[in-house]
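Let us work through a complete example step by step.
Step 1: write down the sequence.
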Amino acid sequence: MQQDPQRRSWYLGPLVVLTLFVGVLIGKGWERTGHATETYEELKTFSEVLTQVQKHYVEEVKSKELIQGAIRGMLSTLDPHSAYMTPEMYKEIQVETKGEFGGVGIQIGIKDNRLAVIAPIEGTPAQRAGIKAGDFIVKVNEESTKDLTLMDAVQKMRGPKGSKVSLTVQRDGVADPLVFALERDIIKIESVRTKVIDNNIAYVRLTQFQEASGRDLTKALKKFKEQKFQSTILDLRNNPGGLLTAAVEVSEQFVAPGKLIVYIKGRDGRKDEYLSRMKEAPEEFPLIVLVNEGSASASEIVAGALQDWGRAVIIGTTTFGKGSVQTILPLADGSGLRLTTAKYYTPKGRSIQSTGIIPDIVVKPQQPVIAAKATEKDKEGEGKPVLPHPAAKAPTTPPAAAKPGDESSAKSNPGEPTGEASLEEDAQLQKAVELLKTWKIFKDLKPL
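Step 2: predict the structure and record it as tokens.
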């Protein structure tokens, strides 16, 4: 049997940093310079330009700023996900897989050459204000995002708790831009959230793939098993991704031991395969996975693996389509380099880059959720609070407030956070519940 290579932690989500085995990756690609003479000549030209700028530019400029700008420009010619991080940015981003950071709570990426919202994080200023997956951010504090890198955009939206930032977004189906005046907060991400639907369906929502996601899911599934639940819904909607190792740990709880979950392939063509390391085969209970356009990267790995092995029915809309792997490389001065080093593929060899996972059953969400017009400036130049469009629905009541005995209500486990739309308002979740009920009916049928 093919050996599973030593696992490494890779960066997959737009704002989540990986744990890196530095000794394995540092220097990879720089051991051989290739066209050394040609490279030296180009560097000589760069040095000449730097000297002329320092000598003749109308204002005095610092060499460090010029060189950092040149590095950013070089990386921007590669792809939207490769970026340079200053020492401050590198230090800050290392804490994000721990589940807490400062900002407005938006996971972003590049789609159609525009800065796109992959997903707002639940319970954050962005989610409460009505920012949606698929929105395009066109301005941050009146500054156009046209030429911003992902890292630059993240930095502009970051800030201390209580400070404010204005985002102007373009939304499909809405003629005018929408302006959101947000107050920054400390963003705390709870990776696994659970509840019970219709008294017998286990519901697990995975908001992001963090270091503890696999362990937290194991605990949740064990608890549901003890309660003798026989079907599960795994909700990956608006989950922007995270650690590859976490995606593998989640997937292997549903597929047989030794099964391929994902493989990655870099420029040299070498394949690194990640197999299920579970000692025992998992129970074959009915499983449905919910996805949407906000499901990206590690979410697509899980959905793709379960779909390829026929282990789950995928319901929702086509996922984001981010199938590249970013590696974080620390540099000598304390800064960092985020570099796209490979692409990942599902067990059947499907590349998800730019195409995403197509659900087995396509169900579009109910519309509209929120629509608002761009605000005008007040006399001090501050953006006025955005008001919901008259057609927008009132804020949904948390499932925990549903009336006892209501068969369509969703009951939260004690102490678990809630906030998802109720079953009546969630067409995709409704479809999943209906399918699981039908599944049970057919299973219980006996031949005449």
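Step 3: interpret the result. The chain has two domains: 100-188+366-404, 192-326+340-364+405-443.
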